[in-house]
Fold these 2 entries.
Entry 1:
Amino acid sequence: MRTAIVSAMQEELAAVLALMPHEAKQVAAGREFWVGRLHGHEVVVVLSRIGKVAAATTAAVLVERFGIGEIVFTGVAGGLAPGVDVGHVVIADSFVQHDLDASPIFPRFEVPLYGTSTFACDRGLTRRLTAAVAAALPGVHVHRGLVASGDRFVATTAESGALRAALPDALAVEMEGAAFAQVCHDFGIPFAAVRTISDRADDMAHLDFATFIRDVASRHSAAIVRALLG
Ligand code: ADE
């Protein structure tokens, strides 16, 4: 089975892409899809770009054009819940769109006509990803639970406080996962996601994010992917 490995940004996946210099590159929907083998596995590696629409396009193309059997997202997120700190890892068990609000027609956060505000990740794939994280990053603090996605880089203490109040179960905030989860739900494709916490989505978020994405994100992704596939 072909596994898709996805990050939003080059900095999150550079060390993985460096392992695939001879694999075939195919361009679709303006994205480069690296198709080949990694650690003995059939893979498609792609950068989704940032935000929910870019993520949804990438997920649909992976399924329809590349025939992938499962999707794993690896990247960074802002910590939201108390104690979810920079350097910790969050493994998603479900996603919500924190900026989706069709009220009063539908309850806030509910995805219209789906009758739900959350989409669950695949249990089996998430179990494998959890084991890979434990093997790849021993000693790192790992959280598992709800992750919130939206088309905003959350970079003020006021906004992250409001999100915490509205979604007290959300561990972290990022910009793509809920779109992948919904598209994978639509196509019946297993999806799992891991995010290293780069910042606390507060007034310092932009500085912490920039440092972390430069120094840590790609190394974490490469180690996790090796443990998952190897
Ligand atoms: N990804 C990493 N940090 C983030 C933040 N603070 N908001 C949204 N996405 C992020």
Entry 2:
Amino acid sequence: MKNILITGGAGFIGSHVVRLFCTKYPDYKIYNLDKLTYAGNLENLKDVEELANYKFIKGDICDLELMRQIFADYKIDGVIHLAAESHVDRSIKDPFAFAMANVMGTLSLLQAAKEAWAGTMEGKRFHHVSTDEVYGSLHNEEEFFLETTPYDPQSPYSASKASSDHFVRAFGNTYGLPFVLTNCSNNYGPNQFPEKLIPLFINNIRNGKPLPVYGKGENVRDWLYVVDHARAIDTIFHDAKNGETYNVGGFNEWKNIDLIKVMIKTADRILGNPEGYSDKLITYVQDRAGHDLRYAIDATKLNKELGWEPSLQFEEGIEKTIRWYLDNEEWMNNITSGEYEKYYLEMYNNK
Ligand code: NAD
Ligand code: DAU
């Protein structure tokens, strides 16, 4: 029996990790700790909430006393840490919120783990889920991010994630905390909050609303299906050596505008619109401040050492994803109502 604390489990990636662990490891007890910010949605976990090995705890990772209590009460011996503020545009508007959640929150979790595991670190593990954005931006087509690429974060979001990565390694080096760290590329799939490119654009195509393309749409992102990221976390959490870092990605780069055209074509086909019908929605808007040009992950180390590879080709993954958002209009309406809607309207009106 293992007691695993998953933070941010009500969010996009976290909910897929919780589902995988609850169903694949019935002997583990899974504690999902989430503050339920605008991005946290327990509807994402409806199918697992009745499982005997699952428990939800509402709480803030910045609350050190609560973290200490959780480690003591539930005898936590593994942490998979995903809770974070995750949207680059929001970090540009409010960097303090990102420093608080991503840096201070990670630090309080590390401190609680270090104290709780002081007797023995044997069999314990802190898995920190991070991003490829810590490496900064690539400026030519030949380069890829390797685990050895120097950190060069360019946005308040990536600076906060880089800082949290440094704290994790510092706790490993200074206190012997057993950790593993993963830096993943852009995820796509069901349950992503519709402020991010793919769900936002699918929803706008359905509603005939403008598709706000930042700059010329020439920035490149490297997309991985979210379930494959969850599978990679499972593999690394169980099989990696302490202190190791793995890049996670599927060698699947897309220029934003090309990806947007694929989304339009696929959504129009599914919706029964004539080909090219939603092209008119493409609206070029002011670029994101400090917009990183290109991300591309080299995940060879993960493949060679631990045998992980993506299970889904992009064509299949994007079709599945578009169908999911079109079929789950109620999920979309529920999550876009309330506080977030005001924020989105304000952001959108400024574009
Ligand atoms: P998300 O925004 O969908 O979910 C984040 C979750 O964390 C939400 O449920 C939210 O309620 C919770 N949370 C935020 N602040 C909290 C706090 N102070 N205490 C407790 N819970 C809190 O994010 P996501 O896209 O699922 O990303 C999850 C993690 O993976 C993040 O750490 C992110 O940096 C990392 N990551 C994301 C991607 C991606 O493409 N989305 C890629 C690589 C890495
Ligand atoms: O690379 C991993 C990162 O991917 C994660 O760490 C972040 O948490 C996650 O949000 C994601 O960051 P991006 O900034 O790459 O994702 P986003 O969906 O916001 O934007 C993807 C690309 O699309 C980016 O180049 C900006 C562009 N874009 C985005 C939005 C929301 C637009 O052109 N228009 C938009 O309206």
